[in-house]
Amino acid sequence: MKIAISHRLIMLSLLLLSFKPDSRAQYKQFKLSPDGDTLNIIDKKGLKQGKWVNTVPALRGEAGYEEEGEYLNDKKDGVWRMYASSGDIVGVENYKWGGKDGLQQYYTYVGVLIREEEWRSINPDAPYDTVAIYGSDNNQITGYKIVRVTQYSVPDGIWKYYDDQSGEEVKEEKYDHGRLINDDGTTATFGTVPVKATPAVSDTTKKKAPVKTPEILEYEKKYSKKKRAQMERTGETGM
Questions:
Q1: pLDDT-based confidence at residue 236 (cuts at 50, 70, 90)
Q2: Residue 237 belongs to a domain
Q3: Which stretch of 7-11, 160-164, 176-180, 219-223 has the lowest confidence by average pLDDT?
Q4: Cα separation of 35 and 21, whole Å?
Q5: Tell me: the pLDDT tens digits for 124-153?
Q6: How far is the CA of 21 from the CAs of 7, 155, 163, 225, in angstroms?
Q7: Is 165 helix (H, G, I), strand (E, B) or coil?
């Protein structure tokens, strides 16, 4: 009697397993890899989920490539790897909230590292960030301000460039929240021409006017603004 009951329980369990719903039924669209893995999932809400393989075509002289990684609610998430048509890896990127975040590395087709970039991703659900304000004559931070972020991913940290033959570092750039910081005091938003930084004046510390020497005061007394303007127009000195 006990053996018969156990046998019926086993058969019932097998029957239930055979009717287990396929998890892929909840997907709107997907692909199967040669190994049977489920790829390129689009869920019922139309959002990309899970592991994906994208093909990026060649454009404006840049070679095409394939990239693989994972999506979370339609946003790239975690490590993404880029491959040339030959199968060689040409890039490793890291994502958070759909934007580049952390270290990004790019290689030649023979595996030589040619560039390292550091990026910072901003949470699109809280698009505000605290950024530093730099002085005009140096790279010293003079204050901070809260800004609304329009880009969800910006260069932030050190970028290094390497010789594609020797692998030696040939150039280095520093970015702070999307702003290029040069050693000569010039700054620029990423992708633009560097410009001289704008002097920062806080509400609590106003910039003091330069102290005038007795010689300057005597000169201004002798030559009024009106007279100096006339001198500039005619070239006359009145002497």
A1: very low
A2: no
A3: 219-223
A4: 21
A5: 777 676 666 766 666 667 777 676 655 578
A6: 24, 45, 54, 89
A7: coil
**Does residue 176 lie in a domain region?**
yes
CA dist., res. 58 & res. 56, Å (int):
7
Alpha carbon distance 175, 180 (integer Å): 5
Q: Which of 150, 117, 109, 108 is nearest to 131 (CA)?
A: 150
Give the residue from 49, 46, 75 showing the smallest Cα distance to 38.
49
CA distances 72 to 40, 53, 97, 118, 122, Å, are 12, 14, 8, 22, 16
Q: Is residue 213 part of a domain?
A: no
21 contacts: CB under 8 Å, gap ≥ 6: none
Per residue in 110-121, pLDDT tens?
899 999 999 999
Bridge partners, 94 (sequence order): 79
Per-residue pLDDT at 214 exceeds 60: no
Q: Which domain holds residue 152?
A: 21-208
Tell me which residue of 157, 161, 154, 162 sits closest to 191, measured CA to CA: 154
- How many domains does one find in the chain? 1
Is 0.85 topped by the overall pTM? no
pLDDT, one tens digit per residue, over 54-70 is: 999 999 888 899 999 99
Q: How many residues does the chain have?
A: 239
Question: Residue 91: which of 78, 70, 105 has the closest Cα?
Answer: 105
Per-residue CA distances from 2 to 5, 12, 15, 67 (Å)? 5, 15, 20, 57
Q: Is residue 10 part of a domain?
A: no
